[in-house]
Design goal:
Chain lengths: 115, 114
């Protein structure tokens, strides 16, 4: 089947605006992850979903960031009142379930630029 | 605390030569270790992983990695580099008791010159 998809692929917004980033995981995958990759940096963990619940939100950098997942499938990451430091590539990944041995499968990312 | 270190920001190698991309980790207990590759404007692609068993793990595109517990390392290797291997490589570790998170290294840019 299809891999993880993300939309939009690119987003340019003005400082102070809200943005929504979407992730469609691989069908049947119950675990979903959001990461942020800033220029020249590694991946920063943001949030993890198991089904519709988010047992680990520890990586969200501020209360401007929120995420939800509905129907155990699609997830939306929302950034309110965007700041220039939010500019980064936002990556989504999914995996089949709860096992630590599982591989995460990544989407192509959304490149966000805040002007 | 869990962490991963990739000590080299960049590795340069000539096509046909062997390559090594280094990774060391810090984690309590027996780690699960992964390598991913990222091509320009693409997401991360899984290369290989070590869970248990044989310390030498073989993965995609001819890559392999050796788990060394005493040195807490998981270096990525390939016997003969290709120009098409040029990309950004990430090492990641996951503690077996904490499947919520991958801890990623900062990445190593591999440049393979013809």
């Amino acid at each position: 089947g299809a891999g993880v998809s993300q939309s939009p692929s690119n987003k340019v917004t003005e400082k102070g605006k809200d943005v929504e980033l979407r992730c469609d995981p691989i069908s049947g995958h119950t675990a979903l992850y959001w990461y942020r990759q800033s220029l020249g940096q590694g991946l920063e963990f943001l949030i993890y979903f198991q089904g519709n619940s988010a047992p680990d939100k520890s990586g969200l950098p501020s209360d401007r960031f929120s995420a939800e997942r509905t129907g155990g499938s699609v997830s939306t990451l929302t950034i309110q009142r965007t700041q220039q430091e939010d500019s980064a590539v936002y990556l989504c990944a999914s995996s089949p379930g709860r096992g630590s041995q599982e591989t995460q499968y990544f989407g192509p990312g959304t490149r966000l630029l805040v002007l | 605390a869990q962490s991963v270190a990739q000590p080299e920001d960049q590795v340069n190698v000539a096509e046909g030569n062997p390559l090594t991309v280094k990774c060391t980790y810090s984690v309590s207990g027996n780690p699960y270790l992964f390598w991913y590759v990222q091509y320009p404007n693409r997401g991360l692609q899984f290369l290989l992983k070590y869970i248990t068993g044989d310390n030498l793990v073989k993965g995609s595109y001819g890559f392999e990695a050796e788990f060394n517990k005493s040195q807490t390392s998981f270096h990525l290797k390939k016997p003969s580099a290709l120009v098409s291997d040029s990309a950004l490589y990430f090492c990641a570790v996951r503690a077996p008791y904490n499947f919520n998170k991958f801890y990623f290294g900062s990445g190593t840019k591999l440049n393979v010159k013809p």
